[in-house]
Amino acid sequence: MTKAKAYAALDPHSALVPFEIERRALGPTDVQIQILYCGVCHSDLHTARNEWNNTLYPSVPGHEIVGRVVAVGEQVSRFKVGDLAGVGCMVDSCGDCPSCHDGDEQYCEHGFTGTYNGPVFGGENTYGGYSQTIVVKESFVLRIRHAETDLAGVAPLLCAGITTYSPLRHWQVGPGKKVGIVGLGGLGHMGVKIAHAMGAQVVLFTTSASKVEDGKRLGADEVCVSTDPEQMSRYTGQLDFILNTVAAPHNLDALLQLLKRDGTMTLVGAPAERHPSPDVFGLIFKRRSIAGSLIGGIRETQEMLDFCAEHGITSDIELIPMQYINTAYERMLKSDVRYRFVIDMATLN
Ligand code: NAP
Ligand code: ZN
């Protein structure tokens, strides 16, 4: 066992506070990582505040983890002490169901083990990346090929990167496709960068007029302020695919009508309250679809990291000390993140 400093939510209503946790003793297939940086995902906030009604307390969030390997079990072959390594949203799955066999551990039929908040379907609580160190089985540890100087900006790829990459790949976004990305937050800004790198024509939909220039800088060919009906009407029936990253309930119909015939809007945002039910006529008259997508499998996460390394893609971040986390959450709720908070774990020492 190793003792580690961490930050935890102790109940849904209080600020996160310093907290000490224990990490398990290194097993033969385990890798121990000194956490250098951890991204702050909106899911951390949903969980800390029990917005999905499934939080186990104390809760140590954080599933965008990068750091350095400090110990490896005797059977570990892909990592050695000193390597850079990453951990995303999962630390285990059954390994034996059809989804796991397909490399889609996030859809494990027995429920994957989240990096924090334990197995999805109950059981032991796991503690995430707002901490000094973590022990994870080798098969759930990712290799990092970016330059070490980019490391803080790599952390958000472990959730925001894969959650946008996976649906963009699944729905075959690429040259000749016109793609809408909705919401320019942590996920959305990765969606813009990745869809652009895949060769698609990218239209960003934002509620924040102040983000228009950034949207273009990040790789959007066009930016539409979605609160302006006149701007929205220009895109009616224009898009092949929409990736919707918004973290709050909103009117889906206004976006669905932007799809071409046979177009799909995939929801990755996971608001605490439901969206208003969409109008079925907007779907059936154009054979449009609404879909959902959950993070991505381990193999695909490695593919995404390598794709981003090859294309020079990292996250645009604001590096914060651990002690700033509660302020960071408040700013995230105001859509005031440019475009991911990343915690410098050295500030926990
Ligand atoms: P974030 O950084 O807070 O970004 C969300 C963005 O949504 C905001 O920046 C804002 O962009 C837009 N937005 C916020 N409130 C809105 C409203 N009322 N109406 C319209 N747009 C609004 O959050 P994130 O970390 O990217 O996460 C986004 C969501 O994805 C969260 O619910 C999170 O839990 C979920 N998530 C899902 C998965 C998955 O596997 N499916 C994985 C990770 C996260 P603009 O200012 O541009 O409008
Ligand atoms: Zn996340």
From TrEMBL:
GO terms for molecular function: alcohol dehydrogenase (NADP+) activity; zinc ion binding. Pfam families: ADH_N (PF08240), ADH_zinc_N (PF00107). CDD domains: CAD1. SMART domains: PKS_ER. Keywords: Metal-binding, Oxidoreductase, Zinc. Residues 9-343 form the Enoyl reductase (ER) domain. InterPro entries: ADH-like_C, ADH-like_N, ADH_Zn_CS, CAD-like, D-isomer_DH_CS1, ER, GroES-like_sf, NAD(P)-bd_dom_sf. Its cofactor is Zn(2+). Belongs to the zinc-containing alcohol dehydrogenase family. This is Uncharacterized zinc-type alcohol dehydrogenase-like protein. It comes from Pseudomonas indica. The lineage of its organism: Bacteria, Pseudomonadati, Pseudomonadota, Gammaproteobacteria, Pseudomonadales.
